[in-house]
Design a protein that fits this description.
4-stranded antiparallel beta sheet; globular; 2 domains; 7 helices
Length: 353
């Protein structure tokens, strides 16, 4: 556990939300009860009281990287009252409810991390997960015995892109032409380790998470498959708004999971054409699978994840299982096939990757 981003933990069962957000139950199960002082500081209600709003972490907690405001102020007072659709208003209230549930135990854990000198790479505000780096064996054992922690994972394998392309052969043209399903009014987050080319004239990328990164071909192609406006090389949902939820060029899993949260706060559809954490040689759920599951179940997102289609160094050419983060119970996992670079189905077949 000496690699950056090598340890991911899921703290506190207390942070597991209700299945009926945004209203939060007062009798929610608590793994380790908060003290009276913590309840007061977090402005949380006593049992039977109305739910409280989200709060910030303790002032002396270590500030992890990538904890930018989930809902940035993109609307100024000069523009008049902000108008939200019913779905947008519900989504925003729901995410704030999730943040309110997680905030107290998150703050408490960050206080513990700061007191022990643990390096925090990322602490999610909307899912119960924290990434730590450079922990010793004894520190890991201490974490494993902490009542606030549900599980400890090795997250040292950062992953990489996964992609295969097609459009007419998927029979999307009849759907678009007959039903006018063009993606208008739908926000899609392209969650990847890399940055898309937001200067491409045929792409409408509303926002990029990290604009300091180099523009790369893989997220650009994925964005094009989704929403290209080219007259002949048109995307499947050319009128959709695309958000480039990019990480740190696959340096750490922590940044990938930060990108997942960022995308979830802006879009209802999360496109995940990448693999991470393991080589697909085990069916075991990983931290990133559970995180993706959480965003779907409690954030009401649609997470579409590539099942494989990769040949990374050190992993071999084929895998026996789908890769993470496509193993979650609530993710829509899609396989890849070889379309023979033709529109017809003749010669199509499953890829071996």
């Amino acid at each position: 556990a000496e690699q950056p981003g090598s340890t991911a933990i899921s703290p506190a069962q207390q942070a597991s939300p209700s299945d009926s957000p945004p209203a939060l139950p007062a009798n929610k199960r608590i793994a380790t009860p908060l003290t009276a002082a913590e309840l007061e500081a977090a402005d949380l209600p006593a049992a039977g009281a109305a739910p409280a709003a989200a709060v910030a972490p303790a002032a002396d907690a270590e500030v992890p990287k990538d904890t930018e405001e989930l809902f940035p102020a993109r609307h100024s007072a000069a523009q008049g009252p902000e108008e939200l659709t019913e779905a947008e208003a519900f989504s925003r209230a729901n995410q704030e409810a999730l943040r309110g549930q997680i905030a107290p135990v998150r703050a408490r854990f960050l206080d513990t991390a700061a007191a022990n000198g643990w390096q925090v790479l990322y602490a999610s505000e909307i899912a119960p997960i924290v990434h730590l780096a450079n922990l010793t064996r004894s520190q890991l054992l201490d974490l494993a015995g902490n009542a606030d922690i549900d599980a400890v994972y090795d997250a040292s394998l950062p992953g990489g892109p996964a992609l295969n392309v097609a459009r007419p052969t998927q029979n999307m043209l009849p759907v678009a032409n007959w039903g006018s399903y063009t993606g208008d009014g739908i926000n899609v987050a392209v969650v990847e380790g890399e940055r898309a080319a937001d200067n491409n004239p045929y792409l409408t990328i509303v926002e990029t998470r990290d604009t300091t990164r180099t523009r790369m071909w893989h997220p650009t192609m994925v964005s094009g498959i989704i929403a290209s406006t080219h007259s002949t090389q048109r995307g499947l949902a050319s009128d959709a708004d695309v958000y480039n939820a990019n990480g740190d060029d696959y340096s750490t899993v922590a940044a990938l999971e930060a990108a997942m949260d960022w995308g979830s706060s802006r879009a209802v559809v999360l496109n995940n054409s990448f693999w991470a954490v393991n080589c697909g040689n085990t069916s075991t759920l990983q931290n990133i699978d559970r995180h993706m599951d959480y965003l779907v179940r409690y954030g009401y997102d649609l997470a579409v994840v590539a099942s494989g289609n990769f040949r990374p160094n050190g992993c071999g050419g084929t895998t026996n299982y789908v890769t993470s983060p496509s193993k979650g119970y609530n993710a829509l996992t899609v396989g890849n096939f070889d379309d023979g670079n033709t529109v017809s189905w003749t010669g199509d077949g499953m890829n071996s990757s």
